[in-house]
Here is the input.
Amino acid sequence: MNVPPERDSSGRFVKPEQEAPKPSDENMHPMSKLLFGWVGSPRTPLILLVLVIVICAGLVVFDLTVNRHEYLDFANANGFYALWGFAAFALAVLSGWPLGKLLRRDEDYYGEAETTPQDVESDS
Here is the structure.
């Protein structure tokens, strides 16, 4: 049985695959293309991830070669400052969750959008 291209095997209509629209360059300043044109590439996230991994690995190797003179013994441990920084950042990020719960308003805090306030007299 031959199936037309606009239907699938069960006979339902399907839309043909379309390319995602690309933004035009006509409204973009040439300097912004030069500075930020690389951001639109599909490989950018992978390149940034590899770059961060390489930098972290380099810092770990560098941490092994540093001779520290700390007052506290546990601060001389390899990776102490990395763990300390990660814990501090995690605390800052995770403290946003209860703070958001504390400051966030209910969805109906301001009332219905189409109602008039009770202290305002109607025109009719």
User: Anything to note?
Assistant: Helices lie at 30-36, 44-65, 80-94, 96-103. Residues 70 and 76 are 6 Å apart (CA to CA).
